[in-house]
């Protein structure tokens, strides 16, 4: 045949019967979606993806060899485009050293905690008739937050629970809601004057569901890490989480509670670390883990009927009719 057998994928060559080469070339106008047979379409798509990966790897190796050949004269590496570094600047991002921010923090509802005038005492409760998974989650959450106590609702309304909490010197109230036997919401109310935050909860994993988990956590006070709470709203939410834990962590326990804010989702992880050497550190996840999404921030304690809201998550349509969210917690 007149064609060059080295550049085509097909049956074995007629002269020698040798197998076809591995490389697959598609026509410039080829579209996998034009193939009618589903199995054939899927097979061709996988081969196309494999070819794309090989070409990408070959180009990467070529660039690395060129950089090694140039040595110090090699141009700087290009910064890859990611969702985070392409985000539009959020004008509500503030400097922690700003005088106005410092004044607000000195006079807000969390000032007594940060001035060491109060000691955190947390009440953890659930919605009415909680299921086993929600009950176990509350019990594990109480082992993460020191000086926290789990009580069950027994049909009491939150408006009746809050005065009782204040009378017993509780500083915060956490309510875990559930839907179809799965925890799906968290209400955090700072006592006695608020504010109250309502979060949507997802991706809940109990300790037994975490792979390669460590041993049970100890009673040591953990360290707290707050990442990317950089806007005015983020400062308020971050201070709410910080006020749940005692002031002085016990470093001998080597336990860390992390609230990581990324794209307005708050990821919670609980780890234990160990120093293997001067340069290496090993970590073990203790659990539980979950993800929070702020739905609203309300002034004062919980009041669903007459409460005044500082911030509500809502979706509006942008100029191109795509959803855009008003209000962000951070800019990373």
Description:
This protein has 332 residues and is an alpha+beta fold. The termini are far apart. Helices cover 24% and strands 25% of the residues. The protein has helices at 38-70, 99-107, 111-114, 132-144, 158-167, 232-242; strands at 122-126, 148-150, 172-179, 182-190, 196-205, 223-227, 255-262, 265-275, 281-285, 289-298, 309-312, 315-317, 323-325.
Key traits:
332 residues; alpha+beta; two-stranded antiparallel sheet; 6 helices; globular
The structural class is: alpha+beta
Share of residues in helices:
10-25%
SS element count, helices: 6
On the 0 to 100 scale, the average pLDDT is 85
Termini distance? Answer: 60 Å
Shape: globular
Topology of this structure?
Elements (H helix, E strand, L loop, with lengths): L37 H33 L28 H9 L3 H4 L7 E5 L5 H13 L3 E3 L7 H10 L4 E8 L2 E9 L5 E10 L17 E5 L4 H11 L12 E8 L2 E11 L5 E5 L3 E10 L10 E4 L2 E3 L5 E3 L7
Parallel strand pairs: 1-2, 1-3, 6-7
Antiparallel strand pairs: 3-4, 4-5, 5-10, 7-8, 8-9, 8-10, 10-11, 12-13
